[in-house]
Amino acid sequence: MGEISVKKDISEMSLAFVGAGKMAQAMAKGFLAAGVVKADHITATAPSCRSQDTLEGIGCQFTHNNKEAVANSDIIFLSVKPHVLPGVLQEIAPVVTKRHLMVSVAAGVPLQFLEEKLPPKSRVIRVMPNTPCVVRQGASVYVPGSHVEKEDSEIIKSLLSSLGYCSESNEGMISAVTGLAGSGPAYAFTAIDALADGGVKMGLPRELSIKLAAQTLLGASKMVLETGKHPMQLKDDVCSPGGTTIYAIHKLESGGFRNLLIDAVEGACLRADAIAKKAK
Ligand SMILES: NC(=O)C1=CN([C@@H]2O[C@H](COP(=O)(O)OP(=O)(O)OC[C@H]3O[C@@H](n4cnc5c(N)ncnc54)[C@H](O)[C@@H]3O)[C@@H](O)[C@H]2O)C=CC1
Ligand SMILES: O=C(O)[C@@H]1CCC=N1
């Protein structure tokens, strides 16, 4: 019953994205693809007109007026860059009321900072999404702030679940989530491009090479999620004794493949922590 009534409510709610860039567009398109929000219930704001055509093209409203967009909406996604957020919070704070559920997707900006810049008792949720939510294969985590009610969390969980995997977490984990899942699509895109380069080097046409690389990562990911088997067991199943794969794995290990990926997640996580320190 809870889920049905929450979904019914959401379809009547109005959403504003303050900041109309890549993350906002990915989420807006994902929500529309999922059918959880009506296009004309979404407004996005930005100082320039760069994303106006794209957003209006999918039926959303676009404006340069942050305060007006906030004042006229129920759920506000703060989707500007972290360094822009303090100024935006100062600008919109006078129009934020009990009506509003404020949702920040900004990497590294702590809940305490957000709550301090908004009126007392503002309902604030911190989310770390990723861009694959545009195809409803996102991976996101949300952390409720001090004044968030159970129904607020349910609404956000329902919205984010429509974009892919989502779970509630605590703020101590969010930098690590950022390093792994928020930034992670960029590692995967780089891996796909590099694998495709390998195919091209060995004579495959570029288009086929990219398709094979992307589908191979997609298939491997689905096997991990759907079989429940450990990734290393699945890896062993591909490595025939004395076969081709174990020669490739040896190359990857010699080049520090795992260390590099661990370093990548750590690097992004530490950067998120550094942004958080600056916000204090
Ligand atoms: N791109 C990604 O994969 C992810 C981004 N995020 C977070 O999402 C937020 C936005 O990132 P992106 O979309 O990548 O950046 P972006 O640069 O594509 O978008 C930022 C948007 O904010 C607008 N903007 C700038 N100043 C503004 C102001 N004063 N008022 C209203 N809008 C303003 C820009 O015109 C632009 O539309 C960041 O805080 C980032 O940490 C979180 C997870 C993943
Ligand atoms: O690179 C960034 O800072 C943002 C946050 C996570 C993914 N993109």
UniProtKB/TrEMBL annotation:
Q: List residues of the Pyrroline-5-carboxylate reductase dimerisation domain.
A: 171-273
Q: What is the originating organism of this protein? A: Branchiostoma belcheri
Q: Which GO terms of the molecular function aspect are on file?
A: pyrroline-5-carboxylate reductase activity
Gene3D superfamilies membership:
NAD(P)-binding Rossmann-like Domain, ProC C-terminal domain-like
**Example GO biological process:** L-proline biosynthetic process
Q: What is the protein named? A: Pyrroline-5-carboxylate reductase
The EC designation for this entry is: 1.5.1.2
Q: Which residues are listed for NADPH binding in this entry? A: 66
- What's its job? Oxidoreductase that catalyzes the last step in proline biosynthesis, which corresponds to the reduction of pyrroline-5-carboxylate (P5C) to L-proline using NAD(P)H. Proline is synthesized from either glutamate or ornithine; both are converted to P5C, and then to proline via pyrroline-5-carboxylate reductases (PYCRs). PYCR3 is exclusively linked to the biosynthesis of proline from ornithine.
Identify the keywords attached in UniProt to this record, alphabetized. Answer: Amino-acid biosynthesis, Cytoplasm, NADP, Oxidoreductase, Proline biosynthesis
Q: Which Pfam families match?
A: F420_oxidored (PF03807), P5CR_dimer (PF14748)
Q: Please tell me whether the keyword Metal-binding is annotated for this protein.
A: no
Q: How does it assemble?
A: Homodecamer; composed of 5 homodimers.
Pathway(s) annotated for this protein in UniProt: Amino-acid biosynthesis; L-proline biosynthesis; L-proline from L-glutamate 5-semialdehyde: step 1/1
Indicate where this protein resides in the cell. Cytoplasm
Signal peptide (residue range): none
All copies of the Pyrroline-5-carboxylate reductase catalytic N-terminal domain together span 15-108
- Please verify whether the record's keywords include ATP-binding: no
- Predominant place of localization: cytoplasm
Q: Its domain of life?
A: Eukaryota
- Tell me which GO cellular component terms the UniProt record holds: cytoplasm
> Which reaction is the catalytic activity of this chain?
L-proline + NAD(+) = (S)-1-pyrroline-5-carboxylate + NADH + 2 H(+); L-proline + NADP(+) = (S)-1-pyrroline-5-carboxylate + NADPH + 2 H(+)
| Family that this chain belongs to | Belongs to the pyrroline-5-carboxylate reductase family.
Recorded hits in InterPro entries, A to Z, give: 6-PGluconate_DH-like_C_sf, NAD(P)-bd_dom_sf, P5C_Rdtase_cat_N, P5CR-like_CS, P5CR_dimer, Pyrroline-COOH_reductase
